[in-house]
Sequence to fold (92 residues):
Amino acid sequence: MQTEDVFRSANDRIAEKGRQLGWTLPGPFLCECSDVRCCARLELTLEAYEELRSRRHRYLTAPGHEVEGAIEIRRTQGFALVEKLSRAARTG
Ligand SMILES: [Zn+2]
Fold:
């Protein structure tokens, strides 16, 4: 499993917990960049998280952090969204 996918499944668990607890304020999600040592935290509402999660190839990162083989598609004040290109377009 690649680093970003490990972070992503951790975030899925955070979101699940948030739903159980009925979070209405932004929760602490993890940056899903490819750096295994990254420990950035991103504040995001469950609603915003679920919206970005609806696309399988999208990852949530701190602004400026990178996911291997992905390009940035959106950047807000608190976080960025990157999207992986198709497997065929990736190198390495
Ligand atoms: Zn990061």
Remarks:
- Residues 31, 33, 35, 38, 40, 61-62, 65 surround zinc ion (CB under 6 Å).
- The chain has one domain: 3-89.
